[in-house]
Amino acid sequence: MAHIAVIGGTGPQGKGLAYRFAKHGHQVTLGSRSADRASETAAEILQRVPDAQVSGAANQDAVAAADLVLLAVPYDGHDELVAALAPELAGKTVISCVNPLGFDKGGPFGKVVPGGSAAETAASLAPEATLVGAFHHVSAVSLWSEQEYLDHEDVLVCGDDADAKATVIELAVAVTGRPGVDAGKLRLAAQLEPFTAVLISINKKYKTQSGLVIGGLEH
Ligand SMILES: NC(=O)c1ccc[n+]([C@@H]2O[C@H](COP(=O)([O-])OP(=O)(O)OC[C@H]3O[C@@H](n4cnc5c(N)ncnc54)[C@H](OP(=O)(O)O)[C@@H]3O)[C@@H](O)[C@H]2O)c1
Predict the structure, then answer these.
(1) pLDDT at 219 over 80
(2) Where is 130: in which H helix or E strand?
């Protein structure tokens, strides 16, 4: 079982993924700009999963304690945060579920990101970390639900390092009950991240929490 730091762990996405990881037996340290806020969110998870190994810490301390790091922060402010954490991220596998999205009168849309994608930008800002993109399409509402596993969804995983990608593919079992799907190289994060705008649009139209499932695979 891994020790995972969830940066942005006080937000709905980080909390939801942390809950799923902890429920599956992983050790989780929630990271926040405020250690107190992180501890409060850890207490919420512990109410649901009393035997979970979950605690809260300041972002830097959370990263230092963990083997795996999940970035679950908004795209606004993401670059500054990753640059500041770069020394602690060195040598670690870092998962990004960050979706650079915008919203206007036409609804949600994927933002043009100078570095291609949030995940690739993080890779260039923390060059000694190994970036993997995953969990972009699982919604916070579904993650925090009582459903045992989100078994109607696939987690698409992209990255350039085969070992890091394999670790995250296995980590996806905690969320969907089955391994994630190898979706290719890290540069494909530029396609995976904005696709979430399509899911949000579908959610609005059909009043649901849609998810992505890949056909043609043996599950
Ligand atoms: N919500 C979803 O359903 C969903 C689904 C898929 C992917 N995502 C992606 O997951 C990420 C997190 O989503 P979310 O809805 O949980 O976001 P959020 O609630 O807006 O933010 C998550 C946490 O990030 C920290 N944060 C906010 N601004 C920051 C900044 N400028 N610098 C450093 N930390 C900051 C805050 O924690 P502290 O104040 O405690 O530090 C906040 O609680 C986003 O990139 C989103 O695109 C979300």
Answers:
(1) no
(2) strand 130-133
CATH number corresponding to 3-206: 3.40.50.720
Residue to probe by mutation, ligand 1, list 13, 63, 75, most atoms within 8 Å of CB: 13
Atom of ligand 1 nearest to the CA of 80: 32
CB-ligand 1 contact for 99 (6 Å cutoff): yes
Residue 218 is predicted with a pLDDT of: 80
Q: Where are the domains of the chain?
A: 3-206
How remote is the CA of residue 59 from the centroid of ligand 1, in Å?
Answer: 13
Is pLDDT at 198 greater than 70 in this prediction?
yes
HSE at residue 85, side-chain half, CA atoms within 13 A, is 31
> CB-hemisphere CA count at 13 Å for 180?
26
For residue 98, report the distance from its CA to the centre of ligand 1, in Å.
8
Residues 28 and 9: their CA atoms lie apart, in Å, by: 10
**Gap from CA of 12 to ligand 1 centroid (Å):** 7
CA of 74 to the centre of ligand 1 (A): 4
| Encoded tokens for 33 | 């700009």
Proportion of the chain above pLDDT 70, given as a percent: 100
Amino acid at residue number 44:
E
Summarize the confidence of residues 52-76 as an average pLDDT.
97
- Distance, in Å, from the CA atom of 116 to the CA atom of 25, rounded to the nearest integer, reads 34
What digits encode the pLDDT tens for the residues 85-99? 999 999 999 999 999
Ligand 1 in reach of 15 Cβ (< 6 A): no
What pLDDT shows up at residue 105?
A: 96
